[in-house]
Amino acid sequence: MATLIGANGEEHTAHLSANDWPAWVREHEHATPRWVFNDTALVYPALLNAGVRVARAHDLRLCHAILRDSALVAAGDELRRAVAWDVSPAPEPPERPVEALFDFASTGPRQVPGDPQEIRAEFDRQRAILNAADGRLRLLTVAESTGALIAAEMRSAGLPWDVAAHEKMLTDTLGERPAAGGAPSIMLQRAEEVRQLLGDMTVSLDSQPKLLRALHRAGILVESTSKWELEEQKHPAIEPLLEYKKLSRLYSANAWAWLDEWVQGGRFRPVYVPGGVVTGRWASSGGGALQIPRALRTAVRAAPGWRLIIADVAQLEPRVLAAMSGDLAMADAARGHDLYSGLVDRGIVATRQEAKIAVLGAMYGSTTGEAGRLVPRLRRAFPLAMAKVDHAAQTGEDGGTVTTLLGRSSPQVSADWMTVQRAATDVDADPGAEQRARRSARDRGRFTRNFIVQGTAAEWALAWLAEIRRGLVALGETSGPATEPSGATFARVPHLAFFLHDEVILHVPEDLAEASAQVVRDAADRAAALLFGTFPLDFPLDLKIAENAGK
DNA sequence: CGCTGTAGCGCG
DNA sequence: AAAGCGCGCTACAGCG
């Protein structure tokens, strides 16, 4: 049985088999309803596989999590009691056949309720709250739900990936693909070189403790085997060792095994997890979608007759901070150009590099070193922006919660955190207890300080994504359907192909490239207006149209 | 043997 | 200098 709940709460119910469900959705989609999905990640991939897209949805799982914790919700008790909806994200659609004999369905990840009564009840709870709530919260739930649609659609479409170019890069840098169990030839050569220079032909470079001991025996007195510490050392073995570590990383993370698992039919299809980070950022599950090395971008290549639109927002987070705090001085320094240069031009800091350290330090809560020295200058130049993050930090240290512009609140303090704090106030508290309490309070302060900025930036990015999607659909409708030259049978419409916090990649037919680029720019303006109204600050994009995402 | 924790490094 | 936020992934170490 499937139930369609209209925007006014009216129900359309049909008794359907799983096979009939996509056709039913397609039929009703003509009226562009806002579909109520118990969990978009669970139900939408099947629709997409059947060639059915929906324009609008409300995701009960994601919105439950937002509304349950939001400080902008006055009466959320009923929602908090509906614990069946407290399901952590990452319900990866079951694709692989069951391999283990005892892999019962009940041992899989817990899922949101699927029965119509409970779905209806949860929707009614959320609707009552949203009807009474601040408009910002309605905007957030729409943006979050649209993000869930986009995540599924991007996985379905995939990022065009040039496997041959990737493999050539691998053989050039690593050597030929080794047989199972071995390592590529160039990597092995480097390892030999390191062992020779360390004077130990048997040491394993992949075991951190063993490598550390070998380094000590060779007179290299480091405390760890990390790159940044090794870089400080002068010893002939260091350079090939760093090279080995680099190759080793490439081999284990993004080489042939990765290609086999994540790239099929010339498309990279990662699993995006909307709302997977407490701040509202997306996470990913499998494929390492959010950690593709920049060097691998050359493998991202448009299909013949298609183009990529690659766009990222310059200094998204500091701009968001300026706007959400209403700091006109900071907006002035950022408007129309590079924010860091703006700080230099105003004599707040001496160099662009200093500006970067100061701004990041302000948002992350740095107190030591160069950042500690520079942040006070920002406090004088941009008092409103700094007051905003300083207040968020203080709230966090005191055990309170903070909230983004649109209403996503940070998690409550844990019982453990409270215990540590209380232990410090005991009359017979040992000196260590007070220190531990101070430290965990400051840790939390840095978290809440960053939460409001990172979280509001994530909201801006969601609005940007949603506006891009809307603009592309409008473009696609005027362009007419066709098929891709490679033989893949999806419509010849421009689509989002990749998203990474403040960056998007679109895959678009050549003749629509300019129009698509304009959609991306317009969407940034619309996102700014949605969140910050007429506040005088722009969000400039670095945007290029290319066949290849590399340099 | 499978599980969990950690180091290290990739991304914003 | 890895200082200071948020992540995921891999390989190894160490546990029972």
Overview of the molecule:
By secondary structure, the protein is α+β, with helices and mostly antiparallel strands. Among the domains are: 178-254, Taq DNA Polymerase, Chain T, domain 4 (Up-down Bundle), CATH 1.20.1060.10; 316-455, Orthogonal Bundle (DNA polymerase, domain 1), CATH 1.10.150. Helices cover 51% and strands 9% of the residues. It has 21 helices and 13 strands. The chain has helices spanning 21-29, 40-49, 60-69, 77-81, 116-132, 135-157, 163-174, 185-198, 208-217, 227-230, 238-254, 256-262, 316-324, 328-334, 339-345, 352-364, 369-381, 383-397, 415-425, 431-479, 513-532, and strands at 2-5, 11-14, 34-37, 56-59, 159-160, 263-264, 267-268, 272-273, 283-284, 306-313, 495-499, 503-509, 541-546. The strands form 5 sheets. It has a 4-stranded antiparallel β-sheet with strand order 11-12-10-13. Helix 3 crosses helix 5. It starts with a strand and ends in a 5-residue tail after the last strand. Mean pLDDT is 90; it is low at 91-108 and 481-489. The protein binds a DNA duplex (12 and 16 nucleotides) through helix 10, helix 11, strand 9, helix 16 and helix 17.
